[in-house]
Every structure is written in structure tokens, then in C-alpha cells.
Amino acid sequence: MADLSQKDWEEQLEKDSNAVILDVRTEEELEEGIIPNSINIDIYKGQEFIEELEKLDKSKNYYVYCRSGNRSGQACAIMKSIGFENSYNLQGGFMNWEGETA
């Protein structure tokens, strides 16, 4: 797991053909907008969150974000503990995101 600045996260993501963007915010937070092409699994769903993660392809590179960067850091740690090799936390989260939104 790596904590990446907005700039590094976006630059690395653009070059990564094996990337998946993972949004771990709640449904209410999604109303603020999303980073295009992201999938959402709410980290607050506890065991269901882990069950949903288990369905994902562990060979992909996951770019993870939440509102501020705290929960996405936790999500990256959980992902590592269940066998995901590459996850990247967006420092500052969606609150500080300056890229495209949908």
C-alpha cells in the first residue's frame, strides 16, 4: 500500500492499464460526485465490505479513495491483509480532488 498525493495518484493511474478505482464512501457521500469509472464499496458495511472485496480481482492495481483519505487508508490495509498486492490511497480524498468528477 502507498499513500499518494493527488498529483502522483492521478499520474500513476493514467499510465496504469491494470487499474481499478475504488470509492469506499457511503451512499450519501456519493451524491457529492464521484471520480469517473470508480466502483463503490462502502467500508462502513463491515463484513459485507470484506465479502465484496473478496469478489474483486486481486491481480489488479486498486486506486482507493474516500472523503478525506482516512477510510481509504484503512481500506488499503484491509485489502493487503486479505491478499491484494497493489493498493494506492488518495491522500486528502475526494474533498481535495481537483481532477474530473461525474
Automatic annotation (TrEMBL):
Pfam families: Rhodanese
Keywords for this protein: Transferase
Gene3D superfamilies listed in its UniProt record: Rhodanese-like domain
Keyword Ion transport appears in the UniProt entry: no
GO terms assigned for molecular function: transferase activity
SMART domains with a match to the protein in the record: RHOD
Family annotation (CDD domains): RHOD
SUPFAM superfamilies: Rhodanese/Cell cycle control phosphatase
Domain Rhodanese: 15-102
Keyword Transferase among record annotations: yes
PROSITE patterns referenced in this protein's UniProt entry, alphabetically: RHODANESE_3
InterPro entries: GlpE_sulfurtransferase, Rhodanese-like_dom, Rhodanese-like_dom_sf
Protein known as: Rhodanese-related sulfurtransferase
Organism: Maribacter orientalis
